[in-house]
Every structure is written in C-alpha cells, then in structure tokens.
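Dig into my protein:

:::
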Amino acid sequence: MANIPRQSKGRSVSSVDIAELDELLGPPPLLPNESLVDYEGLKARLRAKVAPRDVIEEIWLRDILDLQWEVLRMRRLKARLLGNSSPAGLESLLLRRVPHHAREKLVEAWGRGDKEAMKEVLQILKQMGLNMDDVDAHSLLKRLDPLERIDRMISQAEARRNSALREIEKAREATAKRMMSALSDEEPPPRPVKDQGASE
C-alpha cells in the first residue's frame, strides 16, 4: 500500500526529509546583508500555508520561497534606489535658483538629514511654489530606466512564483481525480432492483 501522508490538524504533512532536501537544493540565495532568520521565517509561513504533500511539492515550495524572496529584495532595492536619488532630484530643482557652491553644500547637508538644511530647503521650495513631491518626481526621473528594469524583474519573478503555485494546484486536482477514480473502482456494482409487478 502506498505511503499516504497522514492528516494533522486538517492539513497534509509531507513525509520528505526536509534537511536532506534542503542540502540537495543548496543554500538559501541570500546576499551578505540579508537575514537567514527572516528567510527561514518566510519559509515557515509559506510551509504552513501551502502544506506540501510530497517531494515534488517540496521542490515547488522552494521555488516559490526563493522567488518571493527575490520579489521582496527587488522591492526593497527599488525603494533604496529611489531614496538615494533624492539629492540628485533636489539639485536638479535648485539648479537655476541657488548658486553652484551654495547648492552643493545645501544638498549635501540636506542628504545627511541636517535640520537647518532641511528647513532651508523647505523654505526655498515654498518660495518656488513646490514641495517634497516635486523633489520625489525629479528623483524618479533621474532613475527611471533602472527602476523600470527592476519593475520588469519583479513582474517576471511574480509570474514564475504564480506558475509554481498553479502547478501545485493542478497536481492536487489530478491526485484528487485519481483517488476518486480508484475509489469508484472499489465500489461494488449496484444490486438489481426486483420488479415487484413481475412476481405477482
């Protein structure tokens, strides 16, 4: 008889040796500044949600995990790239309104978070009829090409992740159909019903 995973608290439990499979699939795809604890936490949450039933689903789960980690990384890097471009966006706005040397010093101090510089920048922007949204808009323009490339990478990773999720769903549907077919084969044929009128 096939070794069917037992049910526990309403969900399937994989009989796969997780540690052995992790070793086979290789180490997590982490950058030096990324947290193994965070990665393992995401893995635990996904495992609880997906509840893989066999080795194939375990491999798909790893694909889903790594792709979701990549999506999170790209979103984080996108935000960092946009944030780091803020001084360039501000300098672009102040280009014709503040002398070169004073502009460089002001933007550099503003980028460090100097309170006086930040206050001065807000005053200058107000005089120009602008605000920080205009700085963000100019910052976006400065990094539009790399940001668009990151968006494409995010979309591709999300599509591959969703494809892996669909594979799990299709595999489970196919398994359910096979089990229904097997069960129907085991059912005895219906007993014929006696014609009461023929016996009278």
Notes: The longest strand covers residues 7-8.
